[in-house]
Task: structure prediction
Amino acid sequence: MSRVVDCLVYDHDWRLVLLAGAVCFVASFAAVGLLLRAAHRQGPGRIGWLFMAGTATGLGIWATHFIAMLAYNPGLAVGYALLPALLSLLVAIALATLGVAIAVAARMRRAAPAGGAIVGLGMAGMHFLGMEAMQISAEIVWRIDLAAASVVLGIGLAAGAVTIALRGRGLVLSTLLLTIAVLGLHFTAMGAVGLIPVPFREVDPFWLSPTAVALAIAGAAVMILGLCLSGALADQRISARATQLGAKLQEQHRLLEAAINNMSQGLCMFDAEGRLVVSNRRYVEMYHLSDDDVRPGVTIEELLRRRAATGTYPGDLDRYMTDLRGAIASGRISSRLSELPDGRMIVILTHPIAGGGWVSTHEDVTEQRRAEARIAYLAHHDVLTDLPNRAAFSEHLTTLLANAKARGERFAVFCIDLDRFKEVNDVFGHSAGDAVLREVARRLRAAAEGAYVARLGGDEFTVVIADGPQPQAAETAADRLKAAFTEEIEVDGLRLKIGLSVGIAVFPDDGADATTLLGNADAALYRAKADGRGAIRFFEAEMDLRLRERRALQHDLRAAIANQEFQVYYQPQARIDGEITGFEALLRWRHPTRAFVSPGVFVPLAEESGLIIPISEWILREACREAASWPRPLRIAVNLSPVQFQHGDLPALVHSVLLETGLSPDRLELEITEGVLIGDFARAVSILRRLKLLGVRIAMDDFGTGYSSLSYLQAFAFDKIKIDHTFISNLERNPQSPAIVRAVIGLAKVLRLPVLAEGVETEDQLKFLAAEGCNEVQGYVIGRPHPIEQYADVVGRAAAPARLAAAG
Result:
């Protein structure tokens, strides 16, 4: 609901929203009145009234929709395709007429609500067809729940309005319900709209500008008025109410005038002699004119001279008049862009009308053009560093390759990673990391001395050296880049040491196409990082062998699930006194030729390739199945990957696994790291809350290693925090580690959160944690990871107490 309110408050012009409501109310009033007259008539005459009632309803819905769309300001230029707009009008009229006919004439028990529901269906059909008519440099993404809610709302209220009207329970109440149905459907559906900018999107050749839509709205309003007036004249029985009808017509004329004067475009209508018939307030304000300057009867030439006097007409008057007469004579709509001396850009559309006159609309598109230019720039540049982005780099490399092949030239591509950058983010936060990236970009650009520099994402940069003999020019440039980072980077009073790891590939020696060249540069970077920080490496043949070996391991990983090569090992978790309370499920891969592969090797590969999703689902199901079979109700802890939060429905998966295995939810503990919450924080927290509603426990793993762990404790009610093993392993060696562990335990006590220390390997560490009041421990001092058969007595398959001695 908040999204609907935000859309209405921030993305709409309230003047036009109120106008849409007023027009909708008047049109609804007319439609209900015509409906009642149709209900009171018998014989063939009823058909005409039914048609007028349906047409008035459809026109009212259509006019309200497009007035509200004129109020909608997405920050991009908007137009409307002609055919979908017309089709939406026909759908609205057709379904409204059908619904009115069923409500009035059908001989069935619930004819009135059924007919009203069809009218509501016409509202929905008109709205979504009308949205298809919108021409904008963006892709519309619907939020399904709000879109569905809008349809249900419209159908329900329309059914109620028609039922109340036909049962004689109040003209005003049924009018209000029908008005709310139209407006509620429209603005709820608009709340479901999301826009993804798509620069240079192709526009329907038959499109209407917002001004043309405004004129169409005016025509629709006039048609509504015409229907009301013709109905009043046709029905002799309401002649006594002619004065009242006239007052209504005057009010509707006033609303029509308000619609014209509240348009965001300036509007002028001229007769065949070139004399002004009508103009609106926006035209006067746009060109700094007075009311006397635009009085009816003034000629187009006089009006343009007055604009020239105010400095808002920079063009040649004679040429403009010649072009205008030619456009009117041909009967075609003409368009031109006028740039005013003050920098504003105005699009002027001229629409010839019957009899030799014309209507001109004037739209200030200054902000739209600036926004389009900005979008085009952002599509090819990184927002943070203002360097070309990955898309721009790909285009540049493609062009460079084509030119180099044609001319027989050589060039070098650098793949660059920052050393120690993750430490900056983790310790000092993303704001400091962003400042570092901006300074890195500045230094790279300066050291490159005119060479192409781009940011590919994160801390990945690239430099293309196209000038000079290779590889000498690349070596010289690499030395300059390295020298640029000998001095520390200062951020908010902090002096940070940042280095570069650089991999270099030379065209055509190391690759004749973009994919091979970049792959080999990346392989060289991989070797540089393996050799130590600050290394620069040119591509060599053996690097390709290592890269192929890595890809082979990734290929084997795909077959590991099907071949049942994964195993679950279980490591006990115990209270500080040694009583085992549960196990953590740990994944092991027994490769057919490599024996056991370290999780530190294959888990990153699985996350990169997306295979972590089926692997994580397998270990979750296997661990829950195993735990459900234990005689003792010990807890089972399973790690979740950040990738799982980005794809699929994780709460539904957990729920289905619990039902399938029969494991009690309170025995399952899901462990997450800070990586889950980085990125789409709101989505991650929403998923965690849904998981907690299932009854499972949520633990924060590796606590203290991230820069914002405290903020995450505030945002979500975790059931446990786990102190990272690096702090425990350094208790005897690093004087800061005991202080950090003591602080975390103290914080947890204040928050009333249980604390589990990971990586406890010695009795001294255990004694320290016991003295500080740590609740639980996990590590070799309790038990090593083993297949569950090693802990059969602990889980109750053999008679033995679940104590520290039994787990060793």
In short: Confidence is low (pLDDT under 50) at residues 236-240, 799-808.
